[in-house]
Design a protein that fits this description.
about 75% helix, mainly alpha, two-stranded antiparallel sheet, 2 domains, rod-shaped, 6 helices
Amino acid sequence: MKSNSTFTSDISKKEFSISDRISAKTIRNPILALIQKDYPNFDEGKYLAIEELNMYREKYITNYLVVEIGELSNLETKVIGSLNEDKSLVSVVEDEIGFRTVGQTVADNVAAFGGSWKFIIFFGVFILLWILANIYILLNKGFDPYPFILLNLILSCLAALQAPVIMMSQNRQEEKDRERAKKDYMINLKSELEIRMLHEKLDHLIMHQQEELIEIQKVQIEMMNDILTRIK
């Protein structure tokens, strides 16, 4: 016959001192849910021992810490993965703007050469040699004597051809600047949205952690009160 000073736990079916008996009604909901996960039949009319309750309290705290560490590890993995993928909008923008047709490439190269000191020096030396050759070497009896009508014709044709090519390059530069402005707007908008989402996630995480920490503090206080009660 069972002694009145002991009771049988509804979890382990072991006998414990009646002073260690804890009713399921007094157990906090998170701890009770954890117990019912292992023992679905454990309801408000059941009892367990204080040491079994402490075991589930420790398990609850341990699970919380494991989840938090896992969330941090997942966050680090996602950040590293995004860096390795290199799928940022900036790289896409640079690739799109860098694409050029053959005509655009020629126009850019001509404009770059025509607007450089290399072209000025090269063409200055060419004109000087042309003039010196016709005046001093061919004694103004060569293929282009003074006033150098052929040279003027060449310069006029060069200017007539060079001007539209430079304008083509300028139009392309303006188009590139417009595309860059559009992409800058897209990047700024994307950054703003991501910052807003990040703030919302941080607020949610802080609220979630505060609730969990408060719950853990309550559990720890209950455990300390139980220990003090047993010591008394």
